[in-house]
Amino acid sequence: MRDVDIVSAGSVVVCFGTRPQVIKASALLSALRAQLPTVAIDTGQHYDYELNALLYQQLDIREPDHCLEVGSGSHAVQTASILERIEPLLERLAPRAVVVIGDTNSTLGCALAAAKLRIPVVHVEAGLRSEDAMLAEEINRRMVDATSAVLCAPSERIAERLRTERLPGRIEVTGDIARDVLVRNLSRAPAPGTVRAVDGSRGFAFATLHRAELTSDAAALTRAIGALGRLDMPVLLPLHPRTRKVVENSGLDRRLPESVQITAPLGYLESLSCTRDAAAVVTDSGGVQREAYWLGTPCVTVRTETEWAETVSAGANVVLPPAEVDRLPAVVREQIARGRNWDRDLLGDGRAADRITRVTAALVATAQTQGQR
Ligand code: UD1
After folding, report:
1. Mean per-residue pLDDT over the chain, rounded
2. Confidence of residue 21 (pLDDT cuts 50, 70, 90)
């Protein structure tokens, strides 16, 4: 860890800590660093090799300048420990802006600490909303949006929805940063047939399940994996550490359906490769839903809703509530039958990192003019 201070005039801090945030930070950091002195802080919320170090290697991300090493814990413990650890660091670094991504406890802890120090916050992936106001990620999003100076919305629809909330921050439609990462790395994704451990001669399904709705309920997870086992094709299911814990603790690993092949979490490039080559994707991941949409692979989302409505309106994705997961084989068949000919440009264009950099640089310039620091 290079725990060095880079306190230079007009610097910007970028905070991240979970798998999807490390992936998105790869595009963001290189764009910001080309324009502004940029300090990277990894909270250490996800610390398993496949969810962190492997992604740094694959996506060529420089070691973070600081790691808070917060690790696992309840929501309160994790958020509190991020708050406690980042505050003195932000005081020392005195950045002109703090950039946060998404809706995790890392996003909330870093944004809240910065806002209370009166450092303007730029929220990347702002404005996502769920019907369930008590969903942990929804609480994080709403609190971060309420305290951010700039709200970077992934699409015009999301910005429009955000405008109705009349929050104090400025709304900018920057596009979806996840598409930037995909565009930059797709040509490096392994060739068809070289990743998966399943016999895909009849085609295969790529599945990821990690959200609390399934991992906090062993019976629901068992039903979902059982339904995967009834698809007309083999299934590759890389297990998120949270999912693996439930699978092992409930003994499900000893009675997995024969056609479901579990593995450790894949690298980002392997995940892209499987999403691209699969006959269908079954997931509860926000990131995998959009990657399937951009890569032209039919998707079924095992949740009661999705924040990424564009993928559904395009016809690429369909939501299947966990309570109805027994219908999965039929729903997957229907999704495949709909074909792959949808508009792939409703979310992002691969240039979000440049737009986010532009709005952040403008914010820094305004702060400098006003002599805030
Ligand atoms: C969600 C949460 C986020 C939380 C995270 C936990 C929402 C809106 N966000 O994000 O708050 O921190 O879960 O993980 O619910 N991938 C791999 N290897 C794999 C499988 C996926 O690299 O084996 C990649 C995908 O290609 C994609 C990314 O990981 O780029 C998606 O990350 P994921 O962990 O699924 O998070 P999200 O659901 O996007």
Report:
1. 94
2. very high
Through-space distance between the first and last CA atoms of the chain, rounded to whole angstroms: 28
Does residue 125 line the site of ligand 1, with CB under 6 A?
no
Whole-number pLDDT of residue 108: 98
Domains 12-176+349-372 and 187-337 share a fold: yes
pTM across the whole model: 0.95
Beta bridge partners of residue 40, listed in sequence order: 14
Question: Which CATH class name applies to 187-337?
Answer: alpha beta
Amino acid at 199: D
DSSP conformational letter for 165 = T
236: nearest Cα among 208, 255, 214: 208
Judged against a pLDDT cut of 70, whether residue 6 lies above it is answered with no
Q: Which superfamily does CATH assign the domain made up of 12-176+349-372 to? A: Glycogen Phosphorylase B; (3.40.50.2000)
Token pair of 214 as six digits: 């399934």
* Ligand 1 within 6 A of CB of 45: no
What pLDDT score was predicted for residue 367? 76
**216 neighbors 313 (Cβ within 8 angstroms):** no
103 lines ligand 1 (CB under 6 A): yes
For every residue of 250-279, DSSP letters joined together read TTGGGS--TTEEEESPPPHHHHHHHHHH-S
Q: Kindly state the DSSP code that residue 186 receives in the 8-state scheme.
A: G
Helical segments of 117-217, H only: 136-147, 156-163, 177-185, 212-215
Residue 28: per-residue pLDDT: 98
Catalytic (active site) residue 75: no
Rounded to whole angstroms, the Cα distance separating 72 from 1 reads 19
Inform me whether the pLDDT recorded for 10 exceeds 70. no
CA distance 210 to 265: 11
Give the tokens for residue 160: 């429009």
Atom of ligand 1 nearest to the CA of 23: 30
Q: Where in the chain are the domains? A: 12-176+349-372, 187-337
349 phi, psi to nearest 5 deg: -140, 10
Catalytic residue among 46, 66, 210, 240: 210
